[in-house]
Design a protein that fits this description.
364 residues; globular; Dihydrodipicolinate Reductase, domain 2; six-stranded parallel beta sheet; Rossmann fold; 2 domains; nine-stranded mixed beta sheet
Length: 364
């Protein structure tokens, strides 16, 4: 594909997150959405109309949509238990892929996707959109510049009471379809842990060992909290543990701690701590004693990831990056191969719950 060619886009899945993919592609002058696919085609048409898109084809079958003329890239915005089938089909059709997180529900699915992508030689980006968060990018720049010295410890936490307020909750609460709290949404915190444990500008650290615990009081209970309405109601229960805590040892010597809490009675929160031998970051604050007078925290500029609303997330930066990788024929720092390392952490955590023993990585 040449630098000046318009990139043709197919969006598969017309749920909440697809709205932001569609707007980001629309805002990039080098891409054009040519088709939207959803099992309910009326919803796909609704997404096109909401975005003011004309001449967009609508499909109810992904197989048919992949045959549409002029499709170069595909955004996979379907529920996570369908991702594997979508990714394999799109890769076999020769399409480059932006895959929403999590990639899949098992190591077997990850292996299938990796084999399909490697065989096809297509470019991929996994949907860990917080790598493009302005605050996170500023923090990553501090780490890469060595301002914090050598990083030795990172902590990240995902605290969000997911329940019926989220349209995808009926599938997201089920262990068979969504695996775990760490998979459904907490994988953002897992990836952030790797991202800040890596010392380079776009480097995420490689995990080599995981030990984890799961717990909480919410699993199987019908009475649940709604943080949007700040109220309680009877809802179908969550089928997995709502609290997961993992310790992760990385190949570069950094030790990390990540927690995912679907039970916290509070507004959405994404706390983090990064500890180097010259300075510390906590949330959006920096402590860097460069002189005897420097005794207070300083604020790091940038938008904080303090909302679960998809409109708050930096999809424009993510999708601009994806399209640039396709045009320049380069791999992303957040491609499928890298994202598998993030997923292996929570699959290792579940293995640890069963065995009570540390789990060595890689698993694939």
């Amino acid at each position: 594909m040449t630098e000046t060619a318009v990139t043709g886009v197919l969006v598969i899945g017309a749920g909440w997150v697809s709205t932001q993919h569609i707007l980001a592609y629309k805002s990039n002058p080098q891409s054009q959405i040519r088709a939207i696919c959803n099992r309910n085609p009326e919803k796909a048409r609704q997404r096109a109309d909401e975005a003011g898109l004309k001449d967009v084809a609508v499909y109810s079958s992904a197989e048919e949509a992949l045959q549409h003329d002029g499709i170069d890239v595909v955004s996979i915005c379907t529920p996570q238990h369908i991702h594997c089938a979508n990714v394999v089909a799109a890769a076999q059709a020769g399409k480059h892929l932006l895959i929403e997180k999590p990639l899949g529900n098992s190591l077997h699915e990850l292996r299938q996707m990796r084999e399909a992508v490697d065989t096809a030689g297509v470019k991929t980006v996994a949907g860990f959109v917080l790598r493009w968060n302005p605050l996170f990018q500023n923090i990553k720049s501090l780490i890469a510049a060595g301002d914090l010295g050598e990083i030795y410890h990172v902590e990240t936490d995902y605290q969000s009471y997911n329940s019926g307020w989220w349209g995808g909750w009926d599938e997201g609460r089920r262990i068979e379809l969504s695996h775990s709290a760490m998979a459904v949404a907490g994988c953002h915190a897992v990836d952030t842990l790797r991202w800040f444990a890596g010392q380079g500008v776009v480097e995420a650290a490689d995990p080599v060992e995981v030990f984890a615990y799961a717990g909480g009081k919410r699993k199987g209970k019908a009475r649940q909290y709604n943080p949007v309405d700040n109220d309680w109601s009877e809802q179908p229960p969550m089928e997995y543990d709502g609290l997961e805590i993992a310790l992760v040892r990385f190949a570069n010597g950094v030790v990390g701690k990540v927690s995912v809490n679907f039970e916290a009675i509070q507004p959405y929160s994404f706390p983090l701590g990064i500890y180097g031998d010259r300075g510390t970051v906590k949330d959006n604050r920096l402590f860097l004693p460069t002189s005897p007078e420097q005794t207070a925290w300083r604020e790091i500029p940038g938008i904080r990831p303090d909302s679960s609303d998809v409109t708050h997330h930096p999809f424009q930066g993510e999708i601009d990056h994806f399209l640039e990788c396709v045009r320049k024929d380069v791999e992303s720092h957040c491609n499928l191969a890298d994202a598998i390392k993030t997923h292996e952490i929570f699959f290792a955590a579940h293995k640890c719950y069963q065995t009570g023993q540390p789990v060595s990585l890689p698993l694939l």
